[in-house]
Amino acid sequence: MKDFPRTLIVIPAYNEEESLPYVIDSIRAYAPWADIAVVNDGSRDATPDIARSKGVILLNLPYNLGIGGAVQTGYKLAARMGYQVAVQVDGDGQHPASEIEKLVAALLNTDANMVIGSRHIDKSDYDTPFLRLVGIRILSTIVSLLANQRVTDTTSGFRAIDRGALCFLARMYPRDYPEPEAVILLRRQGYRIAEVPVSMKQRMGGVSSISQLKGAYYMIKVLLATIVDVFKDR
Amino acid sequence: MTVLQRIVLALLSAVLLLFTLELIRRRRLREEYSLLWLLTGIVVALFVIFPEVLYWISTALQLHHLTTMLMVTFLFLLMIVLHYSTVISQISERETELAQQVALLTWQLERMAQEQGLDAQALCECKVCSPEAED
């Protein structure tokens, strides 16, 4: 086995009892060198019990913070416990564990501080609805402009970060729809970002945090947040 | 100002002041946030006692119409609401940090309890103790 850095896999989970066992098992199969932390974001189902019985680190939030607050909790743990790398893997099973090694390798072999697993670099078997594709294109264009770098999949939560980005994001992380914002935040602090193509699956269980109806609202909010970010002082 | 207007304003200020004080007494309103409302009540009371002040201000600001007075009132309320929005934002940020800290510390506590062979989960449960504990 190659030498891997101390890695913490952060799984934000809100009512993911259906898919969580599979997610944890497949991470253990494909990335046995990494530690796993499930951040239970105020679930009402058996999510925390599953994490306990699987013997992974369980961070139990007392109430629902939303994806941003949950992921940041994992980053804080990784920062405090001295992990070199943190990888976010969603609890719904759409991020294939088989690609984790690819993300971490890219983090080590390039000078990037964050590596995003992108659905849109190559053609993958991930079937994106047309309207969402349009939204993703618009968002990607604007985020790329603001970040001064081309980013094809700004909403992908499948990403690996190194210690530098980890320490920064543990202190400051956007809350509601954090993925595009985090890209801009990091870029504006001078961190480097790379993308690698990954194939994602359709989610296994639960519901997407972005329903069709909320799509437009999501777009507007993300755009507003990202544009305002540029003017915020840090 | 007509007598009727003075009576209405006097009642308004009395109700505002009493209500604010009552909210503080019941600990539903923190003193620091009540200052604005107490001040408002006192200013209105001043207008009732010295109506000339109101005339001086309205002539100085050239507010001769009821609608302009309403605008001023509206702007004042707008500022209060904006102030509260900033307070809420600050609170929600702190609340997030607090929740995260609770999650992280709970995990550490569970880990340490496990090392010492204690019932980690029971230690960390967020239940309030019931008087009829079974032991």
At a glance:
The complex is a heterodimer of chains A (234) and B (135). With 234 residues, chain A is α/β, with parallel strands linked by helices.
Descriptive overview:
The complex is a heterodimer of chains A (234) and B (135). By secondary structure, chain A is α/β, with parallel strands linked by helices. Chain A has a single domain, classed as Spore Coat Polysaccharide Biosynthesis Protein SpsA, Chain A (Alpha-Beta Complex). Chain A has helices spanning 20-30, 47-54, 67-80, 100-109, 130-147, 163-171, 178-188, 214-231, and strands at residues 7-13, 35-40, 57-60, 85-88, 114-118, 159-162, 193-197. In chain A, helix 2 links the parallel strand 2 (35-40) and strand 3. The longest helix of chain A is centred in the middle third of the chain and has 18 residues, at 130-147. Chain A is globular and about 45 Å long. With 135 residues, chain B is mainly α. Chain B folds into 2 domains: 1-64, no CATH class; 65-125, no CATH class. Chain B has 5 helices and no strands. Chain B has helices at residues 3-25, 31-49, 51-60, 66-115, 120-124. Chain B is elongated and about 80 Å long. The termini of chain B are far apart. The model of chain B has no long low-confidence stretch (mean pLDDT 83). The chains are: A alpha/beta (234), B mainly alpha (135). At the A-B interface, strand 3 and helix 3 of A face helix 4 of B.
For the record, what is the CATH homologous superfamily label of chain A?
Answer: Spore Coat Polysaccharide Biosynthesis Protein SpsA, Chain A
Shape of chain B: elongated
Helix content of chain A: 40-55%
Distance between the termini of chain A: 42 Å
Give a quick set of tags describing it.
heterodimer; A: alpha/beta; Spore Coat Polysaccharide Biosynthesis Protein SpsA, Chain A; seven-stranded mixed β-sheet; 8 helices; globular; B: 135 residues; mainly alpha; 2 domains; 5 helices; elongated
